[in-house]
Amino acid sequence: MSYIIPIGPYHPALEEPVHAKLYTEGEVIKDAEVFVGYNHRGIEKLATERNAIQTLVLVERVCGICSHSHALTYAMCVEQINGIEVPKRGEYIRVITAELERLHSHFLWLGIACHIIGHDSMFMHIWDERELVMDLLERLTGNRVNYAMVTIGGARRDIDDDLKRDLLKACDALMKPMDRIVEIALTDKTIALRTKGVGVLPKEDAVRLGAIGPHARASGVDVDVRRDSYCSYGDFKFDVPVVDSGDVFARVVVRALECYESIKIIRQALENLPDTPINLGNKLQKIQKGVAVCRHEAPRGQLTHMVVGNGSFNNYRLSVHVPSFKNTPTVPFMLRNNSVADAGLIIASIDPCFSCLDR
Predict the structure, then answer these.
(1) Mean pLDDT of 322-335
(2) Which residues contact 138 (CB under 8 A, 6 or more apart)?
(3) How far is Cα 47 from Cα 58, in angstroms, rounded to an integer?
(4) CA 126 from centre of chain
(5) DSSP strand E in the chain: where?
(6) Hey, how many other C-beta atoms are within 10 angstroms of the C-beta on 31?
(7) Cα 308–Cα 312–Cα 318 angle in degrees, nearest 5
(8) Would you call the peptide bond into 274 cis, given omega within 30 degrees of 0 as the criterion?
(9) In a 3-state reduction of DSSP, which class is residue 20?
(10) What tens digit of pLDDT does each residue of 249-302 get?
């Protein structure tokens, strides 16, 4: 028999509001629609009433998981319009914070994915290690969620020798539990049965639908904004994991392997911290006349900010283009011909942030 099954806008497996309408034949999903817009907060409009420093605080609240990514991308736009060159040490500290945030985000997603498939022991194991990353972020920034590490022209906080030594030790301490997590993720039968061959997105459809980030890389699309060498990423050696199978299991593999690359980047940045100032001072600057578009590889994929300045202290216009906006259109395609029981996991497999999407 044919059914129309709603998921959301409130659902136990999805903590943020999204509404998916499933058109099924028995247990098999034949078609699907996804509706967003339940969480709109008008942040882009609010930004036109705020200066650059106030906007840094505002855009961090777009998302609690990738708050540094939003502040960094906005700051790069203002710096480009005003012709500001960030000191190398400030750029390296920005990168360290960004990669710790990526670790935090990927651990969070891997844990939630295990929770959705009913593997709660693995969920608790992953989140126990995530706590170490959260402690590192708190030690580095003073906060566990919105880090306030970015200012126009650099970073707000420096890394002294003691903190540098502790961060390097923490990177070593993370490797052993990460090896165990990756081993379980790649070999556990429960994870394999619930993820292999589920929610497949072939490469050609990933390109056609505009998928980005780990979601695209799990479908064989070799794309990563960090290789564009912004924010000194060109100084670091790292690999971009790409998997061809395009199913939920591939998305698990890509995010797990990216954790190793983040640690590799953090270690290089710490060991080669330049001896320069961390910023150019905290003087409030006018946003000169001009337009800037800057990109950053946030944990979920390419994040884009566009800032328009008219010579006043406030933004004339701010436009935020988030990864979930690009990845959400792939969800109906992935849901087709899968079981209703897998719908929550497939939707969650893009690592959706509807707080970002409904900014």
Answers:
(1) 88
(2) 144
(3) 7
(4) 18
(5) 2-7, 19-25, 28-35, 150-151, 154-155, 290-298, 301-309, 317-321
(6) 15
(7) 25
(8) no
(9) strand
(10) 999 999 999 999 999 999 999 999 999 999 988 778 888 999 999 999 999 989
pLDDT at 4 over 90: no
| Rounded Cα gap, residues 103 and 122, in angstroms | 17
Q: Say which amino acid occupies 338.
A: N
Task: Return the amino acid letter for 178.
Answer: M
**Burial class of residue 99 (count of CB atoms within 10 Å of its CB; 0-12, 13-18, 19+):** buried
> Hey, what are 62's tokens?
């777009």
What is each CA distance from 98 to 103, 113, 241, 306, in whole angstroms?
9, 22, 18, 20
Residues in contact with 165: Cβ distance below 8 Å, sequence separation at least 6, in sequence order: none
Longest dimension (CA), the chain: 69
The residues, any chain, with a CB within 8 Å of residue 55's CB and separated by 6 or more, are 47, 74, 315, 318
- Mean pLDDT of the residues in the chain: 88
